[in-house]
Design a protein that fits this description.
With 91 residues, the chain is of the alpha+beta class. The chain has helices spanning 17-29, 50-56; strands at 9-11, 70-75, 78-83, 88-90. It starts with 8 loop residues before the first strand and ends with a strand.
């Protein structure tokens, strides 16, 4: 894992993006995911609606995956990017 200088931290999974974000930030911070909560860390809800984010990247109703899409936002001092393929990167 590398942080800063434009390098990213990537994870690929079938977990909902909101969960992947929490796990990636927790790993980058060197803490267990369950410790990534206020008051030490901001809540994901303060910067983005996790349910809406997860719904945005769910497969289509017929089960096909979404071919494209990307969301980028600041969270816990990182720039978080979620891609349609399920990858989460932190910079």
């Amino acid at each position: 894992m590398t942080e800063g200088d434009g390098n990213g931290f990537d994870t690929m999974s079938r977990r909902p993006p909101s969960r992947s974000i929490i796990e990636a930030v927790a790993e980058a911070e060197g803490v267990p995911a369950h410790e990534l909560r206020p008051p030490t860390y901001e809540s994901l809800h303060t910067v983005i609606d996790p349910d809406a984010l997860d719904a945005l990247f769910e497969p289509h109703a017929d089960g096909t995956v979404r071919p494209a899409g990307r969301v980028t936002f600041p969270y816990c001092g990182y720039t978080v990017t979620v891609d349609a393929d399920g990858s989460v990167s932190l910079e």
